[in-house]
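Consider the tokenized backbone below.
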């Protein structure tokens, strides 16, 4: 069996590639290397291809045929909420157009199994303690909207081509499985805090007056290694005869506030951290924590790492690279 991982040289994708390799599976990586690194893919074949480009569907189909692929995991997409608000046309063109080319290639090459990288951003700002997959998505930014429309596209591909698809709605991903696979982009909270410390600056907390125990936003943080394991479980799920669900949350079911994450970084680095307290940002929900019942009961998957595990792995990976 061969799995083609699109975006497999990126942060999350490379962890999935590493896990598949460790489990003895053949992996081919397709990546344009705009944010990924070739050295992350190990001894897997790397095909440099921008899946948003003209004719990418046919070129990718040739890769699928040549490699004998029977499954695809699709990660490649823009993923910055703020940028999506500023450049919505780019997000619609690339996130939706790239997925359209991937599904076109799968149809041409008769590859049935597709795992799609979705996001908790599809939910918007739900006023609930735990977000379940039964909640009607109401994305509030173009990034979340493209992920939700991507899920519609998977459903259409199932009906048109007999594909078997699953979408994983990630919550907040952090940590590292190895130094060379670490998150090098300063876009998520843990790397943002570590980057501020490296620059001798105070990390900024956006809003301290939310209706939460310490006044700061609460999020569900999942270790990237646990997330990689969820992808492997999703691939195995697609090969079952009975597949009652097409969408799964991936998180821990436990929330951590911004100040709690800063405290975890302080413990991991042994440094005292005094954050700068700023104003709220528009569009930040007070709490976003997922229910993990469906993925645990259906895929047999659950997270194994704590917030301290996540932060410690990120700190150690960063130190090893410096």
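A designed sequence for it:
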């Amino acid at each position: 069996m061969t799995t083609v991982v699109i975006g497999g040289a990126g942060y999350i994708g490379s962890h999935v590639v590493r896990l598949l390799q460790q489990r003895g599976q053949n992996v081919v990586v397709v990546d344009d290397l705009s944010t990924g690194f070739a050295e992350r893919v190990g001894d897997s074949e790397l095909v440099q291809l921008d899946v948003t480009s003209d004719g990418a569907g046919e070129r990718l189909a040739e890769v699928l045929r040549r490699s004998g692929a029977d499954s695809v995991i699709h990660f490649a997409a823009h993923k910055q909420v703020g940028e999506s608000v500023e450049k919505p046309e780019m997000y619609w063109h690339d996130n939706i157009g790239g997925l359209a080319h991937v599904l076109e290639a799968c149809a041409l090459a008769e590859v049935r199994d597709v795992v799609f990288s979705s996001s908790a951003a599809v939910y918007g700002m739900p006023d609930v303690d735990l977000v379940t997959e039964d909640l009607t998505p109401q994305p509030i930014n173009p990034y979340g909207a493209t992920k939700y429309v991507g899920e519609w596209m998977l459903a259409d591909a199932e009906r048109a081509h007999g594909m078997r698809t699953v979408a994983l709605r990630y919550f907040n991903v952090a940590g590292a499985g190895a130094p060379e696979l670490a998150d090098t982009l300063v876009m998520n909270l843990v790397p943002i805090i570590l980057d501020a410390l490296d620059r001798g600056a105070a990390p900024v907390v956006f809003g301290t007056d939310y209706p939460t125990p310490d006044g700061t936003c609460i999020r569900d943080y999942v270790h990237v290694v646990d997330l990689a394991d969820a992808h492997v479980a999703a691939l195995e799920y697609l090969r079952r005869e009975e597949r009652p669900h097409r969408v799964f949350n991936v998180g821990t079911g436990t929330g951590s506030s911004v100040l709690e994450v800063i405290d975890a970084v302080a413990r991991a680095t042994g440094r005292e951290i005094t954050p700068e307290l700023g104003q709220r940002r528009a569009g930040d929900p007070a709490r976003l924590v997922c229910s993990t019942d469906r993925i645990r009961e259906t895929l047999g998957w659950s997270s194994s790492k704590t917030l301290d595990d996540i932060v410690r792995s990120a700190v150690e990976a960063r130190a090893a690279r410096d």
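Residues 174-220+252-321 form a domain with the UDP-galactose 4-epimerase; domain 1 fold (CATH 3.90.25.10).
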